[in-house]
From TrEMBL, chains A, B, C:
Belongs to the UPF0126 family. It is a multi-pass membrane protein. The chain crosses the membrane at residues 90-110, 116-137, 173-190. Pfam families: Gly_transporter. The keyword Membrane applies. It is found in: Cell membrane. This is Trimeric intracellular cation channel family protein. One of its GO terms (cellular component) is plasma membrane. Residues 6-80, 92-165 form the Glycine transporter domain. Keywords: Cell membrane, Membrane, Transmembrane, Transmembrane helix. It comes from Trichloromonas acetexigens. InterPro entries: Gly_transporter (IPR005115).
């Protein structure tokens, strides 16, 4: 099992936990929690594969992603009070997932010969579309559209990877640098409570 | 016309009625009601076909589904007060649609060589994604994520069908057993007001 | 550059502006505004291409659409107060985009041998699905499902184009007539404050 694949599964688990917790908080029943956890963890990659025309999407080719998502969501459903103690570790795993998903998404889009904006979009989308779907299904304005340096960290990593892709750098070095950029930016944003500028709307 | 196809069209009509009624209640105009009815009736199968990579989706290959959805939605728009009297029959037709859609969705996924979770997911999705879209477009948390033994009945039927699929049982017997399971569970749930457990959230 | 392509880009810019303005009003950060503008401008055509099975979707084949959407969204983010003065012109450009998108969507669906309802649906969807997504992401009931002769103007144009398509009329004449129908209906609706009938719901 490659290192990237291991990180991918860790990220999947972290994303599933965040989705399942949102379901628990919204008073959903068992099945709702399973759906929300799974969609959060696999929705981004699924949307990417649909747009790339690669069928069936990754998680149906390798169901490991679905088993992990469902397993973690079950665990959250029955033991969600214990996850409160893990709030900080969860944020770190989530950051790892974010970096990994960006790198996997951007890399796959480049393999499919997408252009610059296409590759960057696919990278960001892989990492964030699951969370957007989680928020839409929970009847909220998606968090990443409103605040936090979250998608922006993905943007930075996806741009870096797309640019480095044209250089002579070894692919695994390119991927590592891009992933680390995302993870680092995200962790710094959490620690220092960074946020992007907003347009000033006169009341 | 096969028996399964007849049930499929009945289910389509029932789902369209439920979507169109939601539109009427939300004070939508004529076109909004048509859209909501049609999306509720055909959205699940369409999402399934997209994920399976089968283009164009079923309702564009055979527009009968779209004509029925639009016709029923028109009827609901102009005669919606009469549907109040049909509330109970509608629930039964809806249950028939649920069972039929699960069987059709699971069966198609198995034909496309999806794995266990994939086939079960496609079965549930075919029966429920239209209703989820209806609720998202109506700006509500999707009903099936919150309560009622609805998606759970689909889950039971989809699992049964996927398991029986590996046995020597005749496909039409397998399909009938799975569809009946869904319909029966759903009707029992309505009658006895069943619901799934929810996670206990303090406060 | 063909005349239709020029109109297409104008429509893209107008739709991006409307999406980005919605993001600004909803207090989204820079990236949220970029996402909302781009999704509004390109979401309809993207959904159409997914349903037609034409991958990757148009805006990833020709990234001009994405560059325009992102550029306009950036402009709106930093200069949104200036767009207030342009409110009326924006409505006209939006109407032009509406007509153009309907014609392009319907035409493409006919090229892909879709049936009558399929072609009409693709035409309406190309013009409206981006706005629907904008509203779902902003946590609102989609505007076009609630009021205004907006989707209805698209319906008229898409039906006209599909019908004329079977006649001996020259394709560019067919397209022009259909686009003008949409634009004219939309402008008349704005000026005279038209709306579609709603079902009467007894309180």
């Amino acid at each position: 099992m490659s290192f990237l694949y291991a990180l991918d599964l860790i990220g999947t688990a972290a994303f599933a936990a965040s989705g399942a917790l949102a379901g628990v908080r919204r008073n959903m029943d068992l099945l709702g929690v399973l759906v929300l956890g799974t969609v959060t963890a696999t929705g981004g990659g699924t949307l990417r594969d649909i747009l790339l025309g690669d069928f069936p999407p990754f998680c149906f080719k390798n169901e490991t992603y679905l088993y992990i998502s469902l397993g973690i969501s079950l665990l959250v459903f029955f033991q969600h009070h214990r996850f409160d103690a893990f709030k900080n570790p969860l944020l770190y795993f989530d950051a790892v997932g974010l970096g990994t998903f960006v790198v996997i998404g951007t890399g796959k889009a480049l393999d499919f010969n997408m252009g610059f904006i296409g590759a960057v979009t696919m990278g960001i989308m892989t990492a964030t579309a699951g969370g957007v779907t989680r928020d839409v299904l929970s009847n909220r304005i998606p968090l990443i559209l409103r605040k936090e340096v979250y998608a922006s960290a993905c943007l930075a990593g996806a741009v870096l990877m797309t640019v480095l892709h044209k250089t002579a750098l070894h692919p695994s070095l390119t991927a590592s640098l891009a992933a680390l950029t995302v993870i680092l930016l995200r962790l710094l944003a959490i620690r220092h409570n960074w946020s992007l500028p907003k347009a000033k709307v006169p009341n």
